[in-house]
Amino acid sequence: FRCQMIFGICFFMVFFCAAYGQEKPKKQLTEAEYEKWGKLWVKELSDHGLWASYEMSYENHKDTLFLQNSVTDSRLVFPNGRHGTFGCEKFFSCMLPENQLNLTDLKTLQSQTFGNVLRYEVGKDAKYIITVEKSEDGGTVVVIRDANGFVTSRVEGASDFVLNPAKSALLYVTATASKNSMGILYLATRTNYLLCEAANGKL
């Protein structure tokens, strides 16, 4: 009986060592795999909390912007999207690579894009989207669109703008070879008021 016990113990030790020896070594992460680890960032919440935007950022800078419905869990993905903004519960806008402005209707989830956009802002009650864009002649233009993306006004030669606190009017500046000018555009009435001009460094 003693011999059988010793044999059993020896057999168990041999089996355990063989099984342990077959255990796969833990995988060492490479530098390339570390780049796949993302960091989650909170971005925007729509007025009524029906939609949220958030971002996953990575070491390799291949960041992704997400748009998600808090009720249905519907989700849209914008690779390398940035500067996401909600237009109330009407639309979601964000910049995409190569100066593309994306405009997504939050009811239909249909998207449209506008090219050559340098920057943008959303006007009062999300009725307007104001952009600075590159023009065909190599200059710049300020373009005002409604919430559906249709152009309502343009200020040719304008290189920049600021909105008033109510976001109902904008102050813009234009520049040509001979003069600079500054004006005010009222978004609702599309009234354009020239504030001042400067030629040869003089007002």
Describe this structure in words.
With 203 residues, the protein is mainly β. The chain contains 2 helices and 16 strands. Strand 13 (158-163) and strand 14 form a beta hairpin. The longest helix has 20 residues, at 2-21. The protein starts with a helix and ends with a strand.
Largest sheet: 4 strands, antiparallel
Number of helices: 2
Structure classification: mainly beta
End-to-end C-alpha gap: 114 Å
Rg to the nearest angstrom? 29 Å
Q: Could you tell me the number of beta strands?
A: 16
Unreliable residue runs? 1-23
Instruction: Bin the helical content.
Output: 10-25%
Strands of the widest sheet, in order across it, are 1-2-3-4
Order of helices and strands: HHEEEEEEEEEEEEEEEE
Instruction: Give the amount of beta strand, in percent.
Output: over 45%
**Average pLDDT taken over every residue:** 85
**Global outline:** globular
